[in-house]
């Protein structure tokens, strides 16, 4: 029987349609995954091509060679030398606009062309998380920035054409409704129940166990009750904090492990699917908010949102999250 | 220079990034569009295969043969014989669920296998709109239904694998946040300015002209100021009404024309791209709301939303809507 489920954190509805239930085999890519070389002389992110990107704003080096570089995005949709001032446009002055002010950086995660988080070792992933944190702290010093979004696009269906392993950081002068609404719902829940909705969610999930994928000392990776798509996975820190940059050294170790292991399970179970992941943190000027909680979400690109999803925001998910979690939990890595 | 623009109806932000501006040629499909046959004996929607679908709930016939059929969706994600009652789930009873109650119908738009709205004549499109209206009226009599969404998925990237021309109607017992938020913003605007935000928008667009694609006696088709993606097109009726089923006979003629002509311009300019369109109408139990306004939106699938879009709801649009509108306005049909 199909059912509606409500995401308690956002109040969004999804339809879980198990009659169409799909197993990992149904999603495996038909085409053979390309085998990329370790080094590609035409890749702007490979060693020797450092002049094809702007200079690094952060790097991790070993024995005189770089292991990781963060560079401003050469093809950035936003630029740091513009004004964040709101302006009114059109005859009625009702339309609102801002020059495209913002920061856009690329985290070149390793010098090795053909790795991805799923195939890195823990210390390589640790470098990536450490870079996220350092850049987050640095960028949040800019008083005109309100929101910092860290994300990774893996594969063409996830919106990237560059093979070389990389993530992105985009900082904007606006907090969009999509994020505001989540924070508002978290505040309503906190006003109602006196507790953090994300803390409540992981407590609930840990007690029920059936949607848990990986648990470590400091993190829980699980398929959310109201997952919008097959194998959507949330990673939530057990320690309550609204902002990603509060992550401690121990938590960085732990987060590297849970992120690597979860992505490796997805990689092996679903044959290296395209995916996006996003780290959602509170607005930078609400750094001390008590009712919000940072998290990461991984979205494998296995299905196509159609007119119904676009028109209603209600996603039809053909794989119950209990099934997704079971497959990933059991996957040997 | 890139710029942020806010959608006045939803308060969503987009980034218009003209430095990456793309012209229609950049989007044209590399692969040659498949030429489908007029009739396919294996297609469940072709003549002679009526037993492969549930019986029609509505049809338009001529000379004893059907031209259009509406049938319940055989593979519906929602079922009409379930209960719309909310239930609480999980140990904490915080998770909310509803059995998958709802209606899902397929509008088989013509018996001819290889047509699409862009290649139909006006009277064929008129049949489709008439069917939408009749089914909308019939479905809205169900007291447990709150929202009726009419949509069309064209092509694999838009989420359909069936070639035969068809649209869908899905009726749900819930009004999701995605729709509630729009209505809320329309109410705030109405409280503030005393007028309908959609009426204001088309007034503004008609006075500026630069984003207009097609104007008829009763409708305006335009690229919205804060379009989320290249060639996104909105069609808004000039007469203020919140509900699609209020469409008059004259307006049906007019809507058929503007929908056909706009889709034909997209078809010819962009080489038959995949697209979704959605008709958004007020919740059925808010049929007399004064501050909302029904509309249609066409979204050609030309770009891929990535981690930034998913994580923030801020879309990066590489074609300024003024450019999209100019290309479509000038397209000969």
Textual characterization of the structure:
Two copies of one chain form a homodimer. By secondary structure, chain A is α+β, with helices and mostly antiparallel strands. In chain A, 26% of the residues lie in helices and 24% in strands. In chain A, a hairpin with a 3-residue loop joins strand 10 (212-215) and strand 11 (219-222). The mean pLDDT of chain A is 95. At the A-B interface, strand 1, strand 2, strand 6, strand 8 and strand 9 of A face strand 1, strand 2, strand 6, strand 8 and strand 9 of B. Strand 6 (95-99) of chain A pairs antiparallel with strand 1 (3-6) of chain B.
How many separate helices of chain A? 7
Radius of gyration of chain A: 20 Å
**Order of strands in the sheet with the most strands of chain A?**
3-4-7-9-8-13-14-12-11-10
H/E element sequence of chain A: EEHEEEEEHEEHHEEEHEEHEH
CATH topology of chain A: HIT family, subunit A
CATH class of chain A: Alpha Beta
Q: Which homologous superfamily in CATH is the superfamily of chain A?
A: HIT-like
Give the DSSP E fraction of chain A (strand runs of 2 or more residues).
15-25%
By CATH, the architecture of chain A is named 2-Layer Sandwich
Number of E-type strands of chain A: 15
Task: Count the domains of chain A.
Answer: 1
The termini of chain A sit apart by 33 Å
The amount of helix of chain A comes to 25-40%
Strand count, sense and barrel status of the largest sheet of chain A are: 10 strands, antiparallel
Brief digest:
The structure is a homodimer of 333-residue chains. Chain A has helices spanning 24-27, 122-139, 177-193, 197-208, 249-269, 307-312, 321-330; strands spanning 3-6, 13-16, 58-62, 65-72, 86-89, 95-99, 103-108, 147-154, 166-172, 212-215, 219-222, 233-237, 275-280, 295-300, 315-317.
């Amino acid at each position: 029987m199909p059912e509606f489920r409500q995401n308690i954190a956002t109040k969004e509805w999804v339809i879980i349609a198990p009659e169409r239930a799909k197993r990992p085999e149904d999603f495996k890519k038909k085409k053979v995954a390309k085998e990329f070389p370790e080094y590609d002389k035409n890749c702007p992110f490979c060693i020797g091509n450092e002049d094809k990107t702007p200079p690094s704003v952060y790097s991790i080096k070993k024995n005189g060679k770089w292991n990781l570089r963060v560079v401003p995005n050469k093809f950035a949709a936003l630029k740091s030398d513009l004004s964040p001032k709101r302006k009114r446009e059109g005859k009625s002055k009702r339309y609102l606009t801002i020059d495209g002010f913002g920061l856009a950086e690329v985290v070149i995660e390793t010098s090795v062309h053909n790795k991805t988080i799923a195939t890195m070792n823990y210390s390589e992933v640790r470098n990536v998380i450490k870079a996220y944190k350092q850049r987050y702290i640095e960028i949040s010093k800019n008083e005109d920035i309100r929101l910092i979004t860290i994300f990774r696009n893996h594969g063409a269906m996830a919106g990237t054409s560059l093979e070389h392993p990389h993530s992105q950081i985009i900082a904007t002068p606006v907090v969009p409704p999509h994020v505001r609404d989540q924070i508002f719902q978290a505040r309503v829940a906190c006003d109602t129940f006196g507790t953090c909705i994300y803390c409540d969610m992981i407590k609930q999930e840990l007690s029920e166990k059936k949607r848990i994928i990986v648990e470590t000392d400091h993190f829980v990776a699980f398929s959310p009750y109201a997952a919008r798509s097959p194998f959507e996975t949330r990673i939530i820190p057990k320690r309550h904090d609204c902002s990603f940059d509060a992550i401690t050294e121990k938590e960085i170790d732990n987060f590297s492990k849970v992120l690597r292991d979860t992505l490796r399970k997805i990689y092996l179970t679903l044959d290296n699917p395209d995916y996006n992941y996003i780290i959602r943190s509170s607005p930078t000027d609400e750094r001390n908010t008590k009712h919000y909680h940072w998290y990461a979400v991984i979205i494998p690109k296995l299905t196509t949102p159609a007119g119904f999803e676009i028109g209603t925001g209600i996603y039809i998910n053909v794989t119950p999250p209990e099934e997704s979690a079971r497959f990933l939990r059991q996957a040997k890595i």
